[in-house]
């Protein structure tokens, strides 16, 4: 349980640090880029991955390249979602992305849907609609961004999870795939940061470098503790998956509402409860 609790905390810390970026004059595209430098270094130092599986002819190189582009792009979308829609909606949208993974399991991997899964899907879709519902009290002056960015996060993290399943199906160990993805994502994210610099005039700064390296520590710690939780609770992987998702939704809601005074309409609050119910249905039992 300690590993699981630490994974939940580190996951929420990623969103919190993105939320605080503007307050500390940190450039999010730069942070996302440098995050892959520290996260990749920590993968090498802590997990000691063997890269031999990546040299095999059947290695999923194109899938890894797609992930190298998608990971920083969706990380930037998460930063925009946290800024415009808040931590609560962003975390719920990210966790509900398992709906897309489940639909892919039905369509691509031959999994047979059960009544419980279909009920969870229905609740999850209702939760997503409730969370992104535009209400003046809940969205403030952010307009369409308050519902558009969470939807991008939802779709993006769902696509990432589907691609990760394809990498795992190819027999690539998680540590090796992480090392490859982070190494490939670094130059892509730097390219995004350069494009953002051309548009905004924001210079590369040591402050954003430090902020990005810390973001990478949170990112890696989230992954590491989640993996350790699965090892410690190897007999009950469904519990780990469900507790992780439910814990992030609960803690993210608490932090967003209490620490950042994020305002939720009644329908949005109902969406949080529906999301928790959907995750429980889809991952427990």
List keywords for this structure.
285 residues; mainly alpha
Helix content estimate:
over 70%
SSE pattern, N- to C-terminal:
HHHHHHHHHHHH
Q: Report Rg.
A: 18 Å
Structural class: mainly alpha
- Strand content range: under 5%
Low-pLDDT sequence parts: none
Number of domains: 1
The helix count comes to: 12
Main beta sheet? none
Please give the alpha-carbon distance between the first and last residues.
Answer: 19 Å
How many beta-strand segments?
A: 0
Shape: globular
Averaged pLDDT: 91
Describe this structure in words.
This protein is 78% helix and 0% strand. It is an all-alpha fold and 285 residues long. The protein has one domain. Helix 1 packs across helix 3 (61-84), helix 2 (28-47) crosses helix 10 and helix 5 (98-107) crosses helix 8. The two termini are 19 Å apart. The model has no long low-confidence stretch (mean pLDDT 91).
Secondary-structure blueprint:
Elements: H1 2-19, H2 28-47, H3 61-84, H4 87-95, H5 98-107, H6 115-132, H7 136-139, H8 145-169, H9 174-200, H10 206-232, H11 237-259, H12 266-283
Helix pairs in contact: 1-3, 1-10, 1-11, 2-3, 2-9, 2-10, 3-4, 3-8, 3-9, 4-8, 4-11, 4-12, 5-8, 6-12, 11-12
